[in-house]
Write a structure and sequence with these properties.
It contains nine helices and seven strands, in the order βαβαβαβαβαβαβααα. A seven-stranded mixed beta sheet has the order 3-2-1-4-6-5-7, sandwiched between helices. α2 links the parallel β2 and β3.
């Protein structure tokens, strides 16, 4: 299998006929073996029945996964990735705001040597105040914090080489951070404009509350990418800064006591200094404990701390 198109679906019964028509037309024109994996995320309308109908019509290409309840878009994408067999993975939504006809163009870009091609809804057809503005601010924040500069993290339409998706699991709302994870294993990433259309049927499942989730998930992603294999740098560095601040405050109190005869223990700065020292020492201890956990995680599961793009004249895995 060369191409696996993974599509999470939630209450999209009216959009599915148009989706299947567009996907069938596009994928048939691509001269490669392909499959479409549709993950029903606990839909409450007739989505599952429609999916089963099309799966019966084209069993060679269409696969359906149905959740017992709504687990969220990230879980649906994770399930699709688990069952996908293709060497190249394509992600897109089922709401027909993205155009499957953009897929060949993105595959051609992938052939230029990239590992990930991210869609950019340059002319986005959503509400400017409630969707576009929060998205623009979130994209800027994510790009600045992670160092992976993309205009549109929220665009699901992306094309990946399978090997850059291995080695991590998706939780919460973290599917939009896949490019960040891919970048952490050395993926070559590019972005290209794709078409975007207004939603014809149904309503969006996401509101302003999603922005808060993105910010919270960003803390987790930053920690996992930057400090997952070396947590002592974060906890130890923080602890060191707190202990240095404590020493400076204590030195100030000591100088004030010697030259100006001002009591040390009566000043609130004394309590602040003691608190900073205790917190700093505890932070360092947390860093050491985290280091032990990281080593246990990697060594117990024989997980490497590196990723390999290719080898020459090597066939055996040294871990075997």
């Amino acid at each position: 299998m060369n191409l696996s198109l993974v599509i999470p679906v939630y209450n999209e019964q009216d959009n599915l006929p148009f989706l299947f028509e567009a996907v069938q037309k596009t994928m048939t024109e691509i001269n490669q073996s392909w499959e479409v994996i549709l993950v029903d995320d606990g839909s409450r309308d007739q989505t599952l029945s429609v999916l089963q109908h099309y799966a019966e019509k084209d069993p060679a290409h269409i696969r359906v996964i149905s959740f017992r309840r709504n687990f969220g878009q990230t879980a649906a994408i994770a399930a699709g990735l688990d069952y996908a067999q293709g060497k190249i993975i394509i992600l897109m939504d089922a709401d027909m705001q993205n155009d499957p006809a953009d897929i060949p163009m993105m595959l051609a870009k992938l052939d230029e040597g990239y590992d990930l091609v991210s869609g950019w809804r340059k002319e986005r057809k959503d509400d400017a105040l409630t969707r576009n503005l929060p998205s623009m601010l979130a994209n800027g924040l994510i790009s600045r914090v992670t160092g992976v500069h993309l205009h549109d993290y929220g665009c699901t339409l992306k094309v990946y080489r399978r090997d850059v998706l291995e080695g991590f699991r998706l939780y919460g709302e973290m599917h939009r951070f896949i490019p960040v994870y891919a970048n952490s294993v050395g993926a070559n990433i590019t972005e290209m404009p794709v078409r975007h259309y207004p939603r014809k049927f149904g309503k969006t499942k996401y509101g302003l509350e999603r922005t808060a989730k993105v910010i919270l998930d960003l803390f987790t992603v930053k920690f996992l990418v930057a400090f997952a294999s070396k947590p002592i740098y974060l906890f130890g560095g923080t602890g060191g800064l707190l202990m240095i601040a404590s020493s400076i405050i204590m030195l100030y109190l000591l100088v004030r006591r010697i030259f100006f005869f001002v009591g040390v223990t009566g000043s609130p700065l004394f309590q602040v200094s003691a608190m900073f020292f205790i917190l700093g020492f505890q932070s360092m201890l947390m860093g050491l404990i985290a280091e032990l956990l990281v080593r246990t995680y990697h060594e117990s599961q024989r997980k490497p701390t590196y990723t390999i793009r290719t080898t020459v004249n090597l066939e055996q895995d040294p871990r075997d």
